[in-house]
Amino acid sequence: MSDVVIIGGGIVGLACAYECAKAGASVTLLEYGKTGMQATNAAAGMLAPLVEAHEPGPMFDIGAQALAEFPALVAALESQAGFDIELQLDGILKVAFTNDQLHELRERRSRLASAGHQLELLDAAQCHEAEPRISDRIIGALYSPSEGSVSNQLLALALERAAILHGATIQQRAAVTGFRTSRERVTSVRTAEADVACDTVVIAAGARSGQIAAKLPHRPPKTEDRRPPLPVHPIRGQMIALGGMSTPIRSIVWGPDGYLVPRANGIVFAGATVEDVGFRRRTTQAGLQQMRSMANALVPQLAAAKHLFDWAGLRPATPDGLPMIGPVPEWPNVVAATGHYRNGVLLGPITGRLVADGIVHRDWSNVPADFSPSRFS
Fold first, then answer.
1. Distance between CA atoms of 69 and 92, rounded to whole angstroms?
2. pTM of the predicted structure, to 2 decimals
3. Do 140 and 248 fall into the same domain?
4. CA 336 to chain CA centroid, nearest Å
5. 111 and 179 share a domain?
6. S-S: 237 plus which of 218, 272, 281, 349, CB 3.0-4.6 Å?
7. Is residue 347 part of a domain?
8. HEC readout, 165-210
9. How confident is the model at residue 122 (pLDDT cuts 50, 70, 90)?
10. In sequence order, which residues have a C-beta less than 8 Å from that of residue 129 and are 6 or more positions away?
């Protein structure tokens, strides 16, 4: 018997396990494969709510808050896990090749300034002073000094170790096959090996969250126009790793068609495609060539880099592009923590804290109403 059963072992699920266990709940996490090896493993680890710049609103606010909380979170996790998570807040350079693109960056800077975030608008000479090896075709950029990246793999591992340290149980290769229910509540989560009794269920299964939620009994009986409980669908992203040379950039360089992320081991990640192709998690020749061309356009020196490896992941998207955090309609003890799309690494930790506040302290007041799963019911 667990107070909380969490379905999904990516960044979001692991953060929920860590925060709930830290708050005193007994926690069991069920992952159908290996923890951290789905969308979390495929991410670039960017922490970029400002240069990505959603319109003013709850998504921008929670992203900025999450970024501000990352240094303290990483320090705490490193102390508990015993290793470096490679947090690098060395800045992001968002570049423009055309006057129209530069105008859009100028407007973005103005919007950010009105929200209290001071970013720098650089001309071509200043861009090359910041990153000497970027393309001569770049005419300007928006520089965000406070943003950067983290090792998504190490962050996931640290969250897992910290959750276990606080008493959480992590079960890998434990695919959920269904639920046992009584009236309006889930009483246990079913796997091939055993049923796990619980007081609360958290669905944090990324792009598979909709499939998991569909295993809940329909209440009331299913009708043709009834929407699925959690309308999450996968969006594929392909990436490549480039290396075999001295890293030509110090900070993240983000262009109109993709981004380059230098990692601590000297590799540069180039990504990512955005493809609505269902659950086909594989790379394609066209997608990888698109990423290689994007990288060469941003930093011509990368044309000589070795293509070390490539991969693809499935981002969990929702119809309106916002995450779903909070109780699932019709099931008061089922909580959604999914739909983070391109922001799972950034928003995973803060989502874990919000979910723990809601479950353990019964306080959902800090979750924006726009994120409620009930908006789709």
1. 18
2. 0.94
3. yes
4. 15
5. no
6. 272
7. yes
8. HCCCEEECCCCEEEEEEECCEEEEEEECCCEEEEEEEEECCHHHHH
9. very high
10. none
Looking at the structure, tell me whether residues 162 and 221 fall in a common domain. Answer: yes
**Assigned domain for 195 exists:** yes
Three-point CA angle 225, 278, 45, nearest 5°: 115
- pLDDT of amino acid 56: 84
Same domain, 131 and 54: no
Q: Which is it for strands 268-271 and 233-243: parallel, antiparallel or unpaired? A: antiparallel
- Domain assignment present for residue 84? The answer is no
- The tokens describing 359, both together, are 């479950």
Residues 168 and 311 in one domain: no
The model's pLDDT over 147-166, given as tens digits with 9 standing for 90+, comes to 999 999 999 999 999 999 99
In angstroms, rounded to a whole number, what is the distance separating the alpha carbons of residues 208 and 346?
20
Which three-class secondary structure state does DSSP give residue 21? helix
**Could you tell me if 196 and 114 lie in one domain?**
no
Which of these, 161, 168, 157, 152, lies nearest to 70 by C-alpha position? 152
Q: Are residues 7 and 57 in the same domain?
A: yes
- Is there a single domain that holds both residue 160 and residue 283? no
Q: Is position 251 within any domain?
A: yes
DSSP 22-49: HTT--EEEE-SS-TT-SHHHHS--EE-H
* Inter-CA distances, 341 with 44, 49, 90, 348, Å: 13, 13, 24, 11
The 10s digit of each residue's pLDDT in 307-340 is: 999 999 999 999 999 999 999 998 999 999 999 9
